[in-house]
Specification:
There is one protein chain. The longest helix has 19 residues. 35% of the residues lie in helices and 13% in strands. The protein is built from 13 helices and 13 strands. Strand 4, helix 6 and strand 5 form a beta-alpha-beta unit. Bound molecules: pyridoxal-5'-phosphate (PLP). Pyridoxal-5'-phosphate binds next to helix 3. The site of pyridoxal-5'-phosphate has 10 residues, from helix 3.
Length: 402
């Protein structure tokens, strides 16, 4: 039985046909906890006058420390400022470069700028899709103040390799673990590796605090210095402080979400399985499989657009977006190709640039049903069949992503 009513090329929304969906199907997670659970945390705190006191933030920090099996958790108002605080406090003070992948979170270089560090971008491993020790090692020099390991959007960072490299050279190692909240490495949950790990509580992440972020570490000195940055200046922080505290209301939302995380993962898994079924045997679109041994969160659905697929990745995104399927290019613009108003080390990264042309993020998260997914997959089959019609008006060169 067909999941969609499109029959001929003119039925494609890009060619003037009706859209596949009336409402957008996003790639953002947007999980929300049960209302009663949310209010159950909020109301007693409100009644007791605790909102604004930091009491709920403290409670969240304790719960997150437990969840990640670490000694310390320090909450921030965003992942961005959590990263900035960590870069500022953990860097070697007499050096000025931070090694980071270029194929990563689009504001990572901005954060280095705020921390007074100059990004030195490294290549990524084409299978792991992030920087491993192999790509970081050649970038380490007498100016290296910090190494950023980044957990990719799918799978895990090279935890062991980067840890060994950082220890060998005596350089602090921080993980951006935003995309690996739930995963385990060698049986231990992500959170306690490197000198510190950074997470986000943004609405599109696994734990939604509306906004927010946090740092986990087993090092009490690191935790104290991070807290100092959030305190008032008369308490002599290690680096210039800033107010980037999380609010109690955000903490309440995150607490409720954290309590329901297992149920969310189970739903994510069903969505992932729906994609597996729907895309099975579709030549040219390769769904990236989760590694079950790391207890994945099944959140991001990512596919490689292969050479045998009749359209480019960018054209495929355009075709899908016209149908309200808000698929996105996966990191369309590597950081080293963006204009930057602050110092960085110029570089050429052919592997990164190639990777930036191949991957597609497909709709996922709580606003996307299994039925939607079946339709999206069926639609991709339809696109494959009628790709000729999509080639024809396309003699103009395709948009450059750089
Ligand atoms: C979202 C994200 C961040 C930043 O978190 P915010 O809370 O949005 O500031 C950092 N790194 C990665 C990999 C992200 O996906």
């Amino acid at each position: 039985m067909s999941e969609i009513s499109k029959q001929q090329p003119q039925d494609l929304a890009l060619l003037g046909g009706p859209r596949l969906f009336d409402h957008p199907k996003p790639v953002s997670n947007l999980p929300k906890p049960d209302w009663q659970r949310f209010v159950g945390h909020l109301k007693p705190a409100f009644d007791a006058g605790l909102l604004g006191s930091g009491a709920l933030v403290q409670k969240l920090e304790a719960r997150l420390a437990e969840f990640h099996s670490v000694q310390h958790c320090v909450a921030f108002n965003s992942g961005f400022w959590a990263l900035a605080a960590v870069m500022r406090t953990l860097r070697l003070s007499d050096r000025n470069e931070v090694v980071m992948p270029s194929l990563t979170y689009r504001r990572m270089a901005d954060i280095a700028g705020w921390a007074g560090l100059q990004p030195r971008f490294c290549e990524v491993d084409p299978v792991r899709m992030t920087n491993t020790a192999e790509q970081v090692a050649p970038c380490v020099n007498a100016q290296t103040a910090l190494i950023m390991g980044v957990h990719p959007i799918h799978g895990l960072a090279d935890v062991n390799g980067l840890t060994a490299l950082a220890q060998r050279d005596g350089i602090p190692l921080v993980f951006d673990s935003v995309e690996s909240v739930y995963e385990t490495h060698e049986g231990r949950r992500i959170g306690g590796f490197g000198d510190a790990e950074v997470f986000s509580l943004g609405a599109s992440k696994l734990i939604n605090g509306f906004e927010g972020g946090y740092v986990t570490t087993d090092n009490p000195r690191h935790a104290e210095r991070l807290r100092a940055i959030l305190r008032s200046p008369d308490q002599t922080p290690a680096a210039p402080g800033f107010n980037a505290r999380l609010s109690d209301v955000h903490a309440v939302m995150a607490l409720a979400g954290l309590e329901e995380i297992d149920a969310q993962i189970a739903r994510n898994r069903l969505r992932y399985e729906a994609y597996r079924r729907g895309l099975a045997g579709l030549a040219g679109i390769r769904l990236l499989a989760f590694d079950e041994s790391s207890r994945p969160g099944y959140k991001n659905i990512i596919a490689e657009v292969m050479a045998e697929w009749p359209l480019s990745r960018d054209r495929t995104v355009e075709v899908l977006n016209a149908e309200m399927v808000l698929a996105r290019a996966y990191y369309p613009q590597p950081l080293h190709t963006r204009p930057m108003g602050y110092p960085y080390v110029p570089c050429q990264l052919p592997v990164t640039e190639d990777m930036a042309r191949r991957y597609l993020l497909l709709p996922c998260g709580e606003l996307v049903s299994e039925r939607d997914i079946a339709q999206i997959c069926e639609f991709l089959r339809f696109v494959r069949q009628h790709a000729d019609a999509l080639q024809r008006p396309l003699h103009a060169p395709e948009k450059e992503t750089a």
